[in-house]
């Protein structure tokens, strides 16, 4: 059963009646194509809804009655598909809403995406008032392979110059992959390419301008739908990042959610006042959100398609140990390389396993020079019988979670019935198995199709097969940890709430202390009389120029390390005073700080326009931007998530006593990162925050320097 | 004309006569298949050589005469293809060599790869004595589409269980891609997949065990061959890395050489006594060699195929500016993302260009809401006429070097003749243009095939199209800089030549000085009497424990920085003495060194078993292994190559005054790297060498620490 929030959109997918506005005598008009498709579905029985044509200019369209208005219809349609010029839409929507239509698919473009925001908003308001839901505008709408609802306006055939008809579009097949798209063409092509592989879709839905029904609602609908096994999304962007994460985390707990995100190279518009802000691009934030919410990210159209195939056809597993069976050594080597890249473990067979296989081959009377390593290479002389037996034995190895089987059917001793023989063996396996079949001959196509038709995923290269297989454990790992971030509850830090612009260092220090992040022993020296207090910190010390206008002290010459005597303290003080004056900076004193050496980290936060507060952990110090070794989360993070954030950096290896460096208290660090990650959510006035360096010694984790940028005004939604 | 070194192998490709040993009455035997293929080629006229069957057991094979021995043949065959059991091969080779056969393809396996090295060597010796060349053993041999020579033993049809015949193998087409392979199956599949796309091959050659004819000779042969446009190689490994680089650089100066290398994940066997050695894996060395010799590396089978298509069909350019034309916005966005990943510049159109396109559309009377950005998005409502005109205009923009055109033929207003209309426009373009056609309908296939048949590369996804396009400028850039490394001429450094094992620090310093790499001001303190000399270096100083057994001082607590007084000097000295004693290390004194701060780099060298001396540049100091930011070259490097080596590191950004750091003299650094890269070649006794850190200040580039490991014995070839 659908949850409350998705109940309203059921009328799109399972309406009792559908009306199409914009049906005309020209069969090439969008409305006519849509109407014809629906009528055809109704006639063949795949659509059980009543279908009506709407057009005030006609009373009949071919053999079908045509009605002038919604009021004039024999009954109120549950779903209305609008395919009329933009100017006619407001009246139609108003009529539909008043008549009690439940759902409207608005196909036309020319609304907000063309600068007509007000028109779109007005339509939205009318619909909301009457509780009527709208999909679109500017969308292909939807195609539901179970109910037969179809608003796609593409013609399935076209005429060639010689007048002959040619199939221009493969009809999507009935299946269990739900495809949600922000690009009509891409969604259609995904459905078509899956159909070409014999893989069906549950539905195809174009989100369009999301005037009302959002991508998130559609995701939730298919999360709840018992006939959907995989949800695939083509995403250009989301409006409300946290709403997306909630919907995604809801879905991924139930089934795989695969997303292809575009706009990877778009530059962020934010002014980069901190390292953190300059490191964090829009796409990085999306990636962090995907990971946290359990979304499998596809790197290309091909990968999206391949993941749909593998995740919809294969059983679940969290294991990553892969066994490879082939009779083509080169292919085996390529598959093993790809396993490494995809995070799978193509570990060698144990001695016992090798012995077992040898003796099984001896028992079968095979005179084979197979190599029972991993890849198991049966060599080009392998017979069908040897290949099938080896596959059977390999699939039985309890120490492997996944299998790739690559039969080269081109070699002389492999018979044309290899697919039938292998199918029997593979179908019995309880673990995910992918085939790869290369070549484009009739036999190659037959073998590939035989596997696919029998529910065994098959791919045209070993790399694609391994990559698609790897999506299974990846999905399982993501699912386990999937979680939407906690709600943001403002709890502003007092001393901060009245300030704007650069925040004085001492206020920043107190803020951090309140969140359990401490600085080294230090005092502020404002005049030569304070030198004695400075001395008490204990030489050698670090001296730092305090000025609220100065964000990056070290870059400006505002840090002197290893100050070892009172005389040096005084010369540092004078130097800073002069420096501040020369640069026109306020001189807020000199910080005299205990010298602390260790692993230098950065802890940062930015406020993303779409996803809100983020938290960044990575390499600190002067190499932060150079090495870009960081990981990003959507704040706040639990301690477990914070620990994972730390683990994802290369730097994390340095925390475990790398090359004589300190052994850092990981638990304490995770607690600190988690605590830090609450700051921006609880303090809406902060736009950027950064602790750099945060230094881990064997004993402590201390903030050596930090800065806070307050927001000039509320960040606007994009 | 072939160069001297490849003249000997012409007999494989253009023999006047061919004999096949191992022809029998069983048509499924390898010899029988090969003989039948050759006879068929001779009959259809594609092979002009005389073909003979050899088998002492028969006097006829079907309608053909069969001869017992080579001596008994009507004439001495120029080429002999051997497909007999291993045991019979030595006699056959001996007979062939004595009779004056010029070239032998040895198909059988069971030689060195099965442990029979001696057998293989013996055969090689006989052939060499008579100047007879051997390809193989353990190979598919070769298929030459121009001369009709074919030793492939794969059957083109197989029988299905119902008794019907099915095509099991697409016949390679005649074309200009030479395919060289170390895996018979993979080579065959590449030829087959290219044939499926209508792309022909010049030849397919399996290198087998390379008993005599090497991959390098075959590369040179096709480099010289006027009918070859692209050379594609599937490589598992090479025997002599520098011989490979010489052949590759020779070829890449003339035409594209694309390599798919497997074994990316294989771990190196070398003991990692230095950071350098632990960073450098076998595959990294191959990558460095490929880059230097101008080889385009393909990351997957798909990429190898796609590069063969684009590089064989497109004109050359060094430019990377890409314009994208589409009527599917989502696809445009995906293509732009891939352009970024592939190093292409999908820069926006200038205002003038946008105006030009708008006015051209107005002049044509198009009522289009196209967006003339880049991607140029004609939207789903575009007509064929609009699309074709936009493509024409885009291809005429002088500010773009490359173009991707993606027509979505599925939209209603695009006619089925879009391919014919676009072909006219694209064929006239003087720059590389790729098409992408998605979908699997009859029309989609027709459009794709129309482009391919008319010499316009077309790919099934925009990502693959962009990636394939990017190979054109990549290839051009590589070609320009391609160069085999200079020969290694030993010129041992005197003080080093007598030593074995760890080398004392002072000898290392002198060696480096001889190569123009200097250390900071420093003295060695061996007893308290030397403290005064230590002081003269000028406080603060760095103190370092000298011990020939100690490779990584800092890790062992053997470095104290910021020593600022005589008393500290003396306590450091005592501490080191104690430390050495406790650890059982020799105490060779304490180095008192001027404190130098700046960008920390590493300069290293290892001796690869296949490629010989390598040189590494990267991040120095304690983060070397953590960040793995390094680049690798095959030594020695010219100054230009050395400068490129430095440029390839992320760290190189820090050399140009990054965040207040020093501005490093790049020219001096390149000179230093180039000079350093000669050390290992000139000093065969050195197994590993490392300067870490090499510190760049605003003034100087100084070696703060260095180590040399001498080889325990001559490194063995793998």
Task: Note the main attributes of this structure.
homodimer, 718 residues, alpha/beta, 7-stranded mixed sheet, 6-stranded mixed sheet, 25 helices, 36% helix, flat
Written account of the structure:
The structure is a homodimer of 718-residue chains. Helix content of chain A is 36%, strand content 20%. In chain A, the strands form 6 sheets. A 7-stranded mixed sheet of chain A has the order 3-4-2-1-5-6-7, sandwiched between helices. A 6-stranded mixed sheet of chain A has the order 8-12-11-13-14-15, with helices on both faces. Chain A is flat and about 100 Å long. Chain A starts with a helix and ends in an 8-residue tail after the last strand.
Outline the fold blueprint.
The structure is a homodimer of 718-residue chains.
Chain A: H1 4-7, H2 10-13, E1 17-21, H3 30-44, E2 50-54, E3 60-61, E4 64-67, E5 79-82, H4 89-99, E6 103-106, H5 117-130, E7 133-135, E8 142-144, E9 157-159, E10 165-167, E11 174-181, H6 184-196, E12 201-206, H7 215-224, E13 230-235, H8 241-252, E14 257-261, H9 275-279, H10 282-293, E15 296-297, H11 301-313, E16 322-326, H12 329-341, H13 351-363, E17 371-372, E18 376-377, H14 384-395, E19 402-406, H15 418-427, E20 433-436, H16 442-453, E21 458-459, H17 462-481, H18 494-497, H19 505-514, E22 522-525, H20 531-536, E23 541-545, E24 559-563, H21 566-583, E25 590-594, E26 599-608, E27 612-619, H22 624-627, E28 630-634, H23 639-647, H24 666-676, H25 679-682, E29 686-696, E30 701-703, E31 706-710
Parallel strand pairs in A: 1-2, 1-5, 2-4, 5-6, 6-7, 11-12, 11-13, 13-14, 14-15, 16-18, 16-19, 19-20, 20-21
Antiparallel strand pairs in A: 3-4, 8-12, 9-10, 17-18, 22-25, 23-24, 23-25, 26-27, 26-29, 27-28, 29-30, 29-31
